[in-house]
Structure prediction request, 208 residues.
Amino acid sequence: MLLMVNKIKLLILTVFVAAISVTPTVIFAETETVTLTATVNVALALTISSANYSFGSLIPGSPVKGSGGIDVFVETSAPNGYTLAIHDSVGGTDSALLHSDATTRIADFTSTIASPSVWSSGTSKGLGLTVYSADTSKEAKWGTGTTYNDANNAYVAVPQTASIIHSSAGYKAGIDTTSIAFILDVPPSQKTGNYSGTTIITATAVLE
Ligand SMILES: [Ca+2]
Prediction:
């Protein structure tokens, strides 16, 4: 009898275990969120439409302006825009244009960046620079010209050390373009021959 009771208990236990095994499994799930952060530092890219500016042949007294201006392209994330500066690293009133004798130079135009002046054909002499177009706020001092050879352009000497010729304020999402051009005339006494030289354009991001 006792054995029978135990068998019954065993049977009950077996049924009970089987009942647990068919209970659906409970699935637990949790989520976590990953927050991404990054800081982009200020960058600036400067390119120009042409690295050469040829005046060709010049007859003293008849100014020449080359065959087109140079577009200066600046792309920057700077919150307050950028400035454009120019210099020639040549002291005194000399321009970058140096004779192949390595001694004789063509003079700078007389007006300074602080106060550009319109070219007086036949009277004005030297190498002059103008800013004739700007996507952002061309300064009024550069005159009302809109093309590289516009008679309403106002010109300056290229200084020895970098000086700002244009300020482009504010952030821009794309490329900002400023256009510059040169003019050249010399006195009748200017030594004949070939002259060449370089000027340097600098774009500087304005952070604050
Ligand atoms: Ca100069």
Observations:
- Confidence is low (pLDDT under 50) at residues 1-19.
- The two ends are 99 Å apart (CA to CA).
